[in-house]
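User: Structure please.
Assistant: Input sequence and predicted structure:
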Amino acid sequence: MATGVSGSEAVRVKPQEKFNFFQDERVRSVFFQILTVAIVGWLAWFLASNTAQNLDKRGLSFGFEFLDLVAPFDPDFKLISFTAGVDTYWRIFIIGILNTLYISFLAIIGMSFLGFSLGIMRLSNNWLISKVALAYVEIARNVPLLIQIIFWYSVIYAVLPRLKQSLDLSFGAELAFLNIRGLYVPWPVLGDLLWMTFLALAIAAIATYLFRRWVQKRQDLTGKSFPLLLPSAAILIIFPGLVFLLTGSPLSWDIPELKGFNFVGGASLPRAFIALLIALIFYHSAYLAEAVRAGILSVNKGQGEAAMAIGLRPNKVFSLVTIPQAMPAIVPPMISLWMNVVKNSSLATAIGYADLVAVYMQTSLNTAGHAIEIVGMTMGFYMITSLTISGLLNIYNKRVQLVER
C-alpha cells in the first residue's frame, strides 16, 4: 500500500556544490590580493638589494647616519636658529620643511581668498568687473608658473628702491620697510605671562563656537535670527584684551633699524620669498576662480529664486543658499590646488629661496652625498604633506556633501 508524502512534509535536498577556484569570487579576490602584495614586496626587495649591491661595489654606504654630521653651510633664510659648523644636517632638513610649509601656508590662504573673490567677480553683472576678472584668469592660467616666478622676481628687482631709499610702509612711523633686498617688519618679543592671554583666547574661541551653535539651534527651532558677528567679535577681543592688560601687557616688539649696510632687528622676508609668494597666489587663484564659478553655476537658479520669494536679501541668498550648495562642487578641485601649491613651491630653487629642495636636496646633497636617502626623504615629505591635505579636506568635503540632502 503506497503512502503519499504531503508537500509540507517533503524535505528539499540541496544539490551538493562543487568548489571551483576560478568561479568562487571571494576566494579569487583574496588570492589576487595576496598575489599583488607578494609581487610588490618582491619588487621592493629586489630594488633595495640591487641598490645596496651597486652602492657597495662603488664603495658607498646606505644609511641615515649623515643626519648627525655637522653641516658646513648656513641657509640665508630660516625660521629657527642655525649655526654653520655646529648644527647638523637634520636641522637643515627641519629648516627646509619649515620654510616650505611657511610659504605654502601663506600662499594657500592668499589664493583661497583671491580665488573665491575672482570666481564671484566672473559672474558679476557689471561688464567691466567680469571682464577684468576674465583677463586675470586667462593670463594667469596660460603663463607657466616658473616664468611667472622669474617675472615677479625681476619686477621686484627693477621696481623696488635701494636700501638707503627704502619704502616706509608704516606711513612715517618707521616700523616696516620694503626695498630691493626684501621686507623688514617688527618681530614680537614674548613676555613671561603672555601664555595667559593665549589661554584666554582659546577659551574665547570655544565660547564663540558654543554661542554659534546656540544661535543656529535657536534659529532652527524658532525661525528667528540672532546677531552673530558683533557678539562673537566682542567675545574674541574683549576677554583676551582684558587678560592681556591685567597681566601687564607682556608683549614688546623688536623694530628693524638701518645700521650701516643693512637693517638690524625685527624680521625680514627676502626678495625671493616675496616673488614666490606672489607667483603662487597669482597662478593658483586663477584655477580656483574657475572652480568657484563652475560650482556656483551648478546650483539651480530656482534655489535662489525660492529664497528670494520668502524674503531673503540677495546677500543672504548667496551666503546661505548658493554657496553651501556650491561647495560640494568646489572642494574636490580645491583639494588638488592646495596640494599643488605645496608641490609647486619647490620651483623656488629657480630664484634662490631656501625651501626644502634648495637647502636639502641640492646644497646638502652636494656636500654630504647620500643622494638616495636625501631624495627619498624629500619625496616622503611632499607625499605625507599632500596626503594630509587631501585627508583633511576630504573630511570637510564629506560634511558639506550633507548640505544638499
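The chain has a mean pLDDT of 84.
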